[in-house]
Amino acid sequence: MTALTLAEKILSRAAGRPLRAGDFAEVSPDRCFTPDDAIDTIIALLAEAGIERVAAPEKLGLFFDHFAPAATAEFATVHTGGRRFIADQGIAEFHDVGAGISHQIAVEQGLARPGTLVFNADSHTTTLGAAACFGTGLGASETAYVWATGRMWLRVPATIRIRLDGRLPAGCEAKDIALALLYRYGARLSTYRAVEFVGDALPDLDMAARMTLCNMAVEQGAKAAMVPCDAVTEAHFAALGIAIEPEAGRPDPGAAYEREVRLDLTGLTPMVACPPTVDNVRPLAEVAGIRIDQALIGSCTNGRLEDIRAAAAVLAGRELAPGVRMIVTPASRHVMQQALREGLMTTLAAAGCTITPPGCGACAGLHLGALGDGEVCIATTSRNFTGRMGSRTAEIYLAGAASVAASAAAGVIADPASLPPRPIRSTI
């Protein structure tokens, strides 16, 4: 029997027949979700096609995350229509305002599992690969087709292995790994490829770090990105009380890969993606000193508890620089509740941060932190394209949470190690 990559293995199961890279196949996903910014289009397309009932409501889900709570009457009407549709169709998964971002919830609640195929009308669905799941984004029309039929066709992607070796140095985060890959290989490294992250660095990378790596893989062009099931994955699901099939989340020994690239984490330094593209990456030291107006901790890339902890550790006993505002948006209600229990929100509020409800918020440029003309922001988010967070004349820099927090304290892009000693007062 031919040895399969993890992508080939998962898609073969979803198609009910053996598949290899390059094959075209019709697959049945285990789940298919949508965020709120696509639901009205999906409903309209289903109505136009005369579809009165969705095919498999037990596999579908709706997440109110991109503009939640609604910022305008138009957005509120979209939410109202979505709630009515979900109730009428008996759709299984519904996460209303305040629950958080779909990708975060899918991993923290175990909706994405090893060896499964999950679609979502959101490009950062690659995040689900942290759980050894083939997660990929669809457009609204494709999602409507899946909701109508329970199926979708695709071409099986070839797989690139990204080998991460060595230990992540102190002061560096998973975001720095993702940015270092973009720095070295550019934004076309994985165009319509599946990615498998391997290497002796993986056991040291927790689920949060793996979610960041898989999330940012779409910025390299990846169709999906996965970390094969290992002890970290098994511990994650054991803590959730969910039984899994570990072997379903692992490639076959001897599987054929299109290419392997390597990154030694030893010697890595904090990195920054400069406007206006994600692969315009520089070592932070080269851009230190650039003035900022806003800092943002949040998004499906880095709005997790680990990121809020890193920001609070930097800002404990410090205040935001004059003229700088900092927004903290937890990725989910669970993240927000744990941050409250740990006192992290108290620390950040004391420093002058604005805490927003969980969701996509400013990252999606829809509300809760949009940038004005000529403003400069440093954020833990995934994209820095022109106009992404508001004004087309604003500039966005991307970095890890500690670097973002340090920059907010300094008023300019800064490495945490460069900050002066903090005053005695501390709330963490």
TrEMBL record:
UniProt-listed HAMAP family: LeuC_type2
PANTHER family the UniProt entry points to: 3-ISOPROPYLMALATE DEHYDRATASE LARGE SUBUNIT 1 (PTHR43822:SF21), HOMOACONITASE, MITOCHONDRIAL-RELATED (PTHR43822)
Tagged with keyword Magnesium: no
Keywords: 4Fe-4S, Amino-acid biosynthesis, Branched-chain amino acid biosynthesis, Iron, Iron-sulfur, Leucine biosynthesis, Lyase, Metal-binding
PROSITE patterns to which the protein is assigned, alphabetical: ACONITASE_1
Cofactor note: Binds 1 [4Fe-4S] cluster per subunit.
Assembly and oligomerization: Heterodimer of LeuC and LeuD.
Pathway in which this enzyme or protein is active: Amino-acid biosynthesis; L-leucine biosynthesis; L-leucine from 3-methyl-2-oxobutanoate: step 2/4
Annotated Aconitase/3-isopropylmalate dehydratase large subunit alpha/beta/alpha domain residues: 90-411
Residues that bind [4Fe-4S] cluster: C300, C360, C363
Cited NCBIfam families: hacA_fam, IPMI_arch, PRK00402.1
Protein name: 3-isopropylmalate dehydratase large subunit
The protein's role, per its UniProt record: Catalyzes the isomerization between 2-isopropylmalate and 3-isopropylmalate, via the formation of 2-isopropylmaleate.
Species name: Rhodobium gokarnense
UniProt KW Lyase keyword: yes
Entry cofactors: [4Fe-4S] cluster
Family in the record: Belongs to the aconitase/IPM isomerase family. LeuC type 2 subfamily.
Domain of life of the source: Bacteria
EC number of this enzyme: 4.2.1.33
Catalysed reaction, written as an equation: (2R,3S)-3-isopropylmalate = (2S)-2-isopropylmalate
